[in-house]
Amino acid sequence: MTHKLTDILREFCALPPNGDGALEMIAKYAQEKDKLYCDPLGSVILERNGGGELLLEAHLDTIGMIVREVLPQGFLRVHPVGSMDRRPLPAQVVTVWAKDGEIPGVVISVPPHLKEKDAPEVPEWNAILIDIGGVENRVKQGDLVSLYAPLTELENDCVSASGLDNRAGCAAILHALLAAPEKPVTAVFAVQEEIGGSGAKAAAFRTNAKQAIAVDVTFARAPDVKGYESCILGGGPALGYSPVLDRALGEKLQKLAEKNGIRLQHEVMGGRTNTDADNIQSARAGIPTALFSIPLRNMHTAAELVRLSDISDAAKLILEVIESF
Questions:
Q1: Which domain does 246 fall in, by range?
Q2: C or N: which end of the chain has fewer Cβ atoms within 10 Å?
Q3: What distance in Å separates the CA atoms of residue 300 and residue 320, rounded to the nearest whole number?
């Protein structure tokens, strides 16, 4: 895998929250026999050698905000897109994706000296405003807003950025495809997972997939995060177990990981997985689907954190699956 994983991840994280521009970005890494296109919803689909019975999927979209109202003096009232955590929002730097380009902004924060004693610690959405420095004429209702946190390399092979949920999964799939042999395979970089999963459902429906693997993120262990509901950062991707996931395909992934010395953790869910795997497995007449997830800390904030080795291990496992087909 000659392309540096951090460079791929950095490019994915620089995209707007809806994934616009991903087609052009992924095209730079496509091979000669790849067919690359966007479906009507905006998901990016890569078909190698005509596509195949194996579908790889990761969602491209991230949480964010949408401009609800443009106020005088350059203030914006916003609404969440997806399950945005509003607790750390005050004083956060953001990017407004306007038609004429990116506009930097900050979420306003009332100074502690002026804060009312009975004011809530976490402001409601109608009290959260973005200051864009008086250029309200450049912004329209419906423009998207993302948290501004470019990829930062930390110690111990860790990186932090906004949007690692789930640009980490996208990077794992693309990194694997760069090293994959010329075997038929279809990869979907899906939109709209954070708002219900329509992108994966529509994209899976149009493929000829007989089996699918969804790649997402999961909660990584940290202070105040219970061990039984999280995975170890640096312990490798977590294989999912759920009534909606295919047991036989999951066992195949387990054996491939063991055979090739790839670290793999386990994540048990009693019902739906709350990932795109739920929608893929029920597409058409049903597609047996497996899920593995990359441990991530501080989910749905500007400080999402992963370990590169977990993404690399996910890419290695994806590559072994492609070769096994």
A1: 5-62+163-324
A2: C
A3: 30
In a 13 Å sphere around the CA of 109, the CA atoms on its Cβ side amount to 16
**pLDDT below 50 — which residues of the chain?**
1-2
HSE, side-chain direction, 13 A CA sphere, residue 79: 8
pTM for the full predicted model: 0.95
Cα end-to-end distance, the chain, whole Å = 20
pLDDT in tens, 128-164: 999 999 999 999 999 999 999 999 999 999 999 999 9
Give start and end residues of each alpha helix (H) in the chain.
5-13, 22-27, 164-179, 198-206, 247-259, 277-280, 308-324
Would you say residue 33 lies in a domain?
yes
19 conformational bin, left if phi > 0, alpha if psi -120 to 50, beta if neither:
left
- What contacts 4, CB < 8 A, 6 or more positions away? none
